[in-house]
Amino acid sequence: MLAILIISSLPLYVLYVVYEYLNSPLRNIPAAHPTTPFSSLWILSRTLTGQRNRSIHAAHLKHGSIIRLGPSEISINDPALVKTVYSAGNSFDKPAWYHIFTNYGSQPLFALLHGKPHAQRKKMLSKIYSKSSISNSPSLATTISTCLESHLIPSLSSQETHEVHDLFNALAMDLVTAHLFTSRNSTRFLESKLERHHFFEDLYQSRRKYFAWSSEVPILVWLVGKATFGRFRIVPGWVDDVNTEIENWNMKMCQACEDNMADEKTDDEDCVYYRLRSRGILSQLEAASEVLDHIGAGHETTGVALTYITHHLSLSPHHQALLRAEIVSVGVSPTFKQVDSLPLLNAIILETLRLNPPIPGSQRRVTPKAGCTLGEYHIPGGVIVAGQSWSLHRGFWHDPEVWRPERWLEGSGDKEGGERWLWMFGSGGRGCVGKWLATYEMKMTLAAIYSRFETSVVDDEGIEMDDR
């Protein structure tokens, strides 16, 4: 009986799909796949199997700067289009997808969907993350000097080979938590291989393969668990336990700051948590959610970027020699101001972030109720629209897959035109609030390493970013 009912309904369903296709305002936008005007299954399957970014990029190469990923989802790949969607003042909110970044039931800056609440929260954070605050912070200068000179450099000197991604994650975590909670309340992962292995391997990274399921099909994840009474779950129950352990770990550092504030210690004024809690700006739970988000974004992206930079330099002794000469030219133990002025170091970082952006995927937004115009198309309200740095960073150059820092040196024809296509920190009012902290950490770390060491790749199997 059920089979008969389904078969008899198929013609009606087909008519409905054809009607929706013929009347869709998006019908003239090139489809990334023949099924995308009718279904989101293609892009969902690409996402769940770790092929999303490259599949979208291949579609852009074939069909142009605007493509259709689903019945109500499009992707853009042009700086002018990105400016329309992401510029400050435009009313493109975030979709509910970003709720996945909620902690303790409270939404941090990154998970705030609407423009006004986001602007209010970002205003609380902008000054302490500004370039002037970062570069002139005595506590940050002391912290990075201690991390590099007392821990990272001696560690690199002690053995012949190193798994640098592990070390860079530990370094970035120690630095970001010091900025969030002060150095006395921060992690000491560079000092303890056991602690960092537990956090990164047993907790933080162990959840990664389930993230796409939780973020893309949360209702399905919930329904399957309920329907099977928990006997079968798409996302295992231990993932919830790991998330709870990470939240508890973060809350201990928050509570340590609370105790310091109760003791009226005033040297915490340049730490993020103090700023969020002083004068009752945020509750303890709201502040804890905010800093936990900064911990995730602040350590992982910097760790990935430093790993790729050292990988590329290790394959190029020529660039290493030039970089070493440039760093040595500003003397021993240079300040950030001196390091920040080095053109080749800056070019190496920019080129690596172009080719291997730590956040390569779609930055989703929702078109406003009144709709908008993107290129030659009018896009109605409620449509998901997104750009991705993986594609933008390959859209201007004739040889985009080649690592060539010289693109970013003065006199290069690529430098002026190419800057418009760089998008590793986003843009507009929702651009990365921590970009100057990340830049500070990368430049000081690379200066410390390459003024002392030469690096080479021991196991030349290459490195490949997870494409989800």
UniProtKB/TrEMBL annotation:
UniProt-listed PROSITE patterns: CYTOCHROME_P450
Keywords on record: Heme, Iron, Metal-binding, Monooxygenase, Oxidoreductase
One Pfam family cited in the UniProt record for this chain: p450
Essential cofactor(s): heme
SUPFAM superfamilies: Cytochrome P450
Gene3D superfamilies: Cytochrome P450
Family: Belongs to the cytochrome P450 family.
Entries under PANTHER family matching the protein: CYTOCHROME P450, CYTOCHROME P450 12A4, MITOCHONDRIAL-RELATED
Protein name: Cytochrome P450
UniProt organism field: Discina gigas
